[in-house]
Amino acid sequence: MSTPVTESAPIPARPLPAHYRSTKVRRQRVRAAWYFLTPMLVTLSMVAGWPLLRTLYFSFTDASLSDMGDPLFIGLENYLVYDNGRWFGVLADPTWWQAVWNTAYFSVVSVSLEVVFGVIVALILNAEFKGRTLVRAAVLIPWAIPTIVSAQMWAWMLNDQFGIINHLLMTFGIIASPIAWTADASYSMWAVIMVDVWKTTPFVALLVLAALQMLPKDCYEAAEVDGIHPVRVFFKVTLPLITPALMVAVIFRLLDALRVFDVIYVLTSNSTSTMSMSVYARQQLVEFQDVGYGSAASTLLFLIIALATVAYLYLGRKQLQLGGE
Amino acid sequence: MNSRQLSKLTARLGFWLLVAFVVVVAVFPFYYAIKTSFTPSSELFRVELWPTQATLANYLQIFSQRSFLQAIFNSVVVATSVVFIALLLGITASYALGRVRFRGRTMVLLVILGVSMFPQVAVLSGLFEVIRALNLYNNPGGLILSYTIFTLPFTVWVLTTFMRQLPMELEEAAIMDGATPWVTITKVFLPLMWPAMATTGLLAFIAAWNEFLFALTFTLTDSQRTVPVAIALLSGGSAYELPWGPIMAASVVVTVPLVVLVIIFQRRIVSGLTAGAVKG
Questions:
Q1: Is the pLDDT of residue B160 over 70?
Q2: Which of B168, B148, B18 is closest to B87 using CA atoms?
Q3: Which residues in chain A are closer than 8 Å to B229, comparing Cβ atoms?
């Protein structure tokens, strides 16, 4: 990668400001900026922009994995079509709606739990105590473990016959007989949520911890002098001050949770009781080879995530404006 | 006085219990995986917290499989290449975005942020086509290309944040001396960017090492797989005879380097994550 070497600017008598604003240097810099951006923009359009457009296009065709060459344009049939007295398409598929519900449920529950636990862990890590560095390293471990590996580790611990979790719960007399955590529809969603919360709480905790460490010390000293209860101080002082960081953590986690794939795929495969929108879309695309239909599901997921982002940013801004000073 | 001391003591005790609980919850699954990986398969049906017998059989078994070694090799190649590409494209792009004012800069930043929010599955079919067209299907090259979708936006974003914090005087001096932007980047900024590059590089490496969906979809044969897929598919047999010992051994092998890296670089990682998220 190289940029054209333009002749160097003449050295002026009166230095910086005038020189820096000289249009020649500025033009050179702006041109260089675009040269520098081009490789990145080309790569991104090749792996993101163009594929997204193609996915959108495929969703209106009957493309299949074995023959993606010249698919037939079929309009909205992949989404919804009325044929022979029945509705067909993604939007008429109860499994899709189940996947939507699963994903929404998973996202709301696990992100809420992660925020609550993340704040608690961050408060602990923010306190001064011996061995804090060690504890922080320990807390980071779940985050460092690949999702697939953590899913397998938990699958083993949640194993219905030889799993340690059932063993412990039975030893303490909490349950009478082993639970098939990942196979039983009434428990599998909770198993998935548990693994996700375990893995990603450290991430939220780190973001909150960073915010906590930037807080001004003086209001805490004032609160201590006034003898205000720490819990009250937390809700009246700390929480409002870390809200922006929390909102960032929530949006990051929410976007991740809405597109969740690997935890669910490894823990419960294609079981409909935990299937997320991503799992559904991939199953249609790859296993059933139906690229058109799968692309329609992918497009809907993309729209849902885009919508969620916009709504979240809009509401967040509004709330900050109302709540802020 | 006495009751005050008592309540202080209970508070401290409660705090330490809480710390102990958090540490146990965070570490136990990994400990248990390590313990299982050393347990002989005949002992797996006896659930125990502490190892009573230790064996290397599970490790010998996975390392005697050529496909597992190949998967590790593939993962190393893919993750390293992805980091290299992301840093190379990221450093120049972040110079442009962090230090130059030009029309459309906000637009570019918004596009980058948008891409980092993509659900991977939304580009799956389109990307599949691109990879096939480039003849990269079932080839680590296809994974290297596809992984830039999540490593590149993130790298650019974090490096831009770092780039912005560098003092203006440095660049002004370089301009005074007649340095071109390319020279400014390589001779002035690059030496100062190493810490930031190490952090983003490490985070990109972890992300690429852990990726599953693309690796699962864009590879077909054992010899082209990466470790996450290899581990996920180890359990592909019958539902009642999962080779838990070898699965845990493989999991430990894949995870230990990451855990060590994360613990060594934890300060850097924290600052990298927060630079990317909070300040962004």
A1: yes
A2: B148
A3: 148
- Report the C-alpha gap between B119 and A258 in whole angstroms: 8
The amino acid at residue A237 is: V
CA distances from A7 to A89, A277, B134, B205, B233 (A): 62, 56, 39, 39, 59
Contact B126 A278 (CB under 8 A): no
pLDDT digits (tens, 9 = 90+) for B65-113: 888 999 999 999 999 999 999 999 999 899 889 888 888 888 888 888 8
- Residue B226 sits at φ, ψ, to 5 deg, of -100, 170
Residue A203's nearest CA partner among A114, A285, A138 is A114
Calculate what percentage of chain A has a pLDDT beyond 70.
Answer: 91
Nearest chain B residue to A308 by CA: give it.
Answer: B117
- Which residues 51-80 in chain B show a CB within 8 A of chain A? none
Tokens representing residue B262 in the block? 């994360």
| Chain B residues in contact with A156 (beta carbon < 8 A) | 32-33, 36, 244, 247-248
| Model confidence pLDDT, tens digit, residues B249-263 | 999 999 988 888 888
DSSP A242-282: HHHHHHHHHHHHHHHHHT--HHHHHHHTT-TTT--HHHHHH
Q: Measuring CA to CA, which residue among B211, B67, B223, B52 is closest to residue B127?
A: B211
**What is the structure's pLDDT at A17?**
52
Give the residue from A281, A284, A279, A289 showing the smallest Cα distance to A68.
Answer: A289
Instruction: Give the residue with greater pLDDT, B208 vs B171.
Output: B208
Q: What is the DSSP letter of A300?
A: H
CA dist B118 and A121 (Å) reads 29
pLDDT of residue A110: 95
Tokens read off for A8? 């160097």
Question: In chain A, what residues touch B176 (CB-CB under 8 Å)?
Answer: 11, 15-16, 19
Q: How confident is the model at residue A53 (pLDDT cuts 50, 70, 90)?
A: very high
The greatest distance separating any two alpha carbons of chain B, rounded to the nearest whole angstrom, comes to 79
- B39-59 as b/e: b if 16+ CB within 10 A: beeebbeebeeeeeeebeebb
Highest mean pLDDT among A104-113, B182-191, B236-245: A104-113
Per-residue tokens: A141: 């471990």
**Alpha-carbon torsion (B61, B67, B72, B75), positive or negative:** negative
Nearest to A181 by CA among A200, A205, A198, A164: A164
How confident is the model over A231-284, as pLDDT tens digits?
Answer: 888 888 888 888 888 888 888 889 889 999 999 998 887 788 889 999 999 999
ipTM of this predicted complex? 0.87
Q: What is the pTM of this model?
A: 0.87
Q: The dihedral of CA A25, A31, A34, A39: what is its sign?
A: negative
Phi/psi at A83 (5° precision): -140, 125
Tell me what the pLDDT averaged over chain B comes to: 86
End-to-end CA gap in chain A:
48
User: Do residue A149 and residue B235 have CB atoms under 8 angstroms apart?
Assistant: no
For A67, phi then psi, to 5°, come to -140, 90
Asked whether the CA dihedral B181, B187, B188, B191 is positive or negative, the reply is positive
Structure tokens given for A325: 């000073």
- A227, A70 contact by CB (below 8 A): no
